[in-house]
Amino acid sequence: MRSPALLGLLGFVLAISTADAATISGTVTGPDGAPVRAAFVQARHAGMKMTVSVLTDNQGKYVVENLPAGDYRLSIRAPGLRAEPKSGLKLAAEQNVSHDFALQKGMVRWTDISILQGIQLLPNARGKDVLVNDCMSCHGFQGKMAATVRDHDGWRNRVEYMREAMRASLADRRGFSDQQAEDVAFYMNEMFGQDSTLPRSPTEMPGYKDTLTAIPDEALRIV
Ligand code: HEC
Question: Ligand 1, atom 3: nearest CA belongs to which residue?
Fold first, then answer.
């Protein structure tokens, strides 16, 4: 049996969550002026530290709906393309604001690709298997590793930090040995250390194009 009280409560919650309901929309075009499909548009509410991400459609259009009023920073993520973020975008309740982006050519960075692409493209060397099997179960290599340059001791230190903080999965008794710790620190130093020989862009790796997968239209509706 449906409870009228519960339905009333649900209606109330919906009413507050859409009361402000401001919208940001616009079009994203590339260096050639053509619409850019499947670019991430991210609206970050400064006060709430809340980010809403949407994708552009086949016409390069995007809509970020149901936003609470506030001060927003709008940025774009599209591998190989870049644009200055738009900061200080003020949204009043129920306001519709429009902002278009004209993207310029940029470099595809290691931080831009997916975990799966990274597993395929990062060179095989001592310690890669540890990184893939023992570390990537929790997080990727992009933000936590590829985004920072550290020396060998710096990487050893971060591995020890993980072994301590993530004891439940990275303790000796769980089969994670000192040797594996040393191997993965070695690999991270080879890839993301000061003397790394890793190409600056994953597009320089053989087989890069084969790692690009088509994004189906339904996926563009993900918010
Ligand atoms: C059980 C989950 C888990 C596992 C397994 C794990 N990590 Fe982490 N890792 C985290 C979390 C959560 C954070 C964020 C915590 C923080 O930044 O303090 C993190 C942060 C990091 C950072 C960033 C630390 C910093 O100072 O910015 C590095 C580097 C890192 N992990 C490397 C590794 C490596 C290498 C392995 C494999 C040996 C690994 N992690 C395994 C969960 C895990």
Answer: 138
